């Protein structure tokens, strides 16, 4: 039994390192600025809320590749990339992939987020909140927007600082490759 456990652990760790190396090869065009790591990083536990005050965490998405986007209604690059994030979720969201948007900071009331989502026809993304920026601080977010790529095991495998064209062919190829592995 111990041999099996050691072998399984070694294979799992090897797969994670291979995944990180493969991810580097996928950083083309619009995804060239994606920061990747030689080994997946642990993600600290944190929670965020929905508009009814319900608590959520990344545990809700365990088993999926997740793109966590920290944004704010007052942030022009955040607002600019939101339609692409919406299109990405519509195209690939499901059992293996999800885009999770978290409005961080106290100025992002549900009313402001609703108004922005409605005006831009953002209809596929969750409306999550981090009013005291606890989740953003836990993830080391210093400016906005920041998008963190989480693998199906709950580890950080990439990070985009600044806006991106998330619905580009380069992005779609990267995410399809990750979820099909």
Automatic annotation (TrEMBL):
It comes from the Bacteria. The keyword Signal applies. Residues 37-181 form the Thioredoxin domain. The keyword Signal applies. GO terms for biological process: cytochrome complex assembly. It is found in: Cell envelope. SUPFAM superfamilies: Thioredoxin-like. GO terms for cellular component: cell envelope. Residues 1-20 form the signal peptide. InterPro entries: Redoxin (IPR013740), Thioredoxin-like_sf (IPR036249), Thioredoxin_CS (IPR017937), Thioredoxin_domain (IPR013766), Thioredoxin_ResA/DsbE_sf (IPR050553). Gene3D superfamilies: Glutaredoxin. Keywords: Cytochrome c-type biogenesis, Redox-active center, Signal. Transmembrane segments: none annotated. PROSITE patterns: THIOREDOXIN_1, THIOREDOXIN_2. GO terms for molecular function: disulfide oxidoreductase activity. PANTHER family: THIOL:DISULFIDE INTERCHANGE PROTEIN DSBE, THIOREDOXIN-LIKE PROTEIN HI_1115. This is Thioredoxin. It comes from Thioclava dalianensis.
